[in-house]
Amino acid sequence: MAVPKTMDNDVRDTEYCIGFSTAVTRAIDAIERQRTTVGSHERIGIFRVFGRDAGHTALYTAYVTSLRCCIPEYHVNLPKLIDLLMADKRNNPSNYALVILSEGAEWEGYKVKEYGEPDAYGHRKKMSVAEDLSSEIKAATGEETVVSDLTYELRSGSPDFVDRMVAITFAGMAMDAIQEGKQGLMTAVQPRQLRAEAYSRPGPRLAPGRSEHDVQYRPLSPDLRPKAGATHLSHESVREAGTSCERPRWASSS
């Protein structure tokens, strides 16, 4: 029996992995705390989070904090990113701006540097893309930045409610399968859809002949902010949208 557990939330065939909610919660808390420091110094705050090949942690965090983000699935245009951050800074009464980067985020013409010996899976540690972006911003604009690496901070502390609930549920599912003599399985949360459903007033109940309409969004808008509904996309849809810029499908199968 397998149980998916990774804060990157990038295990195939499940929409949720244990640790993801806690990681996003930690990231939100850290960024909200550091707003005052970045604002008081009137700088551009750059936050790096885990996400070697998948940008779910950065995407969800940016979505709920209304920030811009860069993810591995989508190579941004560096001059455009810098222009957006400078515009954010100018338009902010406190004269600062924030951006979130996955550790594997890259822009056009740039590749994250690696160092050290490869691990059991052939992966080497990645140098800080946040530091590299900081250097690019300084060279292009002369603006000072504050770089904060939140990677291991997100793995600290006790799990939040969602992760405790999912872990206990997965454990029960695994035990049930074992008792039934099943093997070669993985516990999983299957994809769901957001729907806009018609209803009749004044009663709160849905009308008997209700109609359902799929709501579709791209995960990142042209201004590098997560769009509404992006967090409900399947892993494959996020990857497709990031590489082809096409409007992705909502998850409809495992």
Overview of the structural elements:
By secondary structure, the chain is α/β, with parallel strands linked by helices. The protein has a domain at 20-158: Rossmann fold (3-Layer(aba) Sandwich). It has six helices and eight strands. The protein has helices spanning 20-41, 56-65, 78-91, 129-141, 161-179, 235-244, and strands at 44-49, 68-70, 97-102, 114-115, 125-126, 145-149, 195-197, 212-214. The strands form three sheets. A four-stranded parallel beta sheet has the order 2-3-1-6, with helices on both faces. The protein has a two-stranded antiparallel ribbon with strand order 4-5. The protein starts with 19 loop residues before the first helix and ends in a 10-residue tail after the last helix.
Please report the first level of CATH classification, the CATH class of one domain: Alpha Beta
Q: State the distance separating the first and last CA atoms.
A: 18 Å
Sheet of most strands:
4 strands, parallel
The overall strand count is 8
For CATH, the homologous superfamily of one domain is named as: Phosphofructokinase domain
- Adjacency order of strands in the biggest sheet: 2-3-1-6
Number of helices: 6
From the 3D coordinates, which CATH architecture of one domain would you assign?
Answer: 3-Layer(aba) Sandwich
Strand content: 5-15%
Mean residue pLDDT: 76
Structural class determined from secondary elements? alpha/beta
Q: What is the CATH fold-level name of one domain? A: Rossmann fold
* Helix fraction bin: 25-40%
- Our Rg estimate from Cα atoms comes to 20 Å
Instruction: Assign an overall shape.
Output: elongated
Unreliable residue stretches: 193-218, 228-254
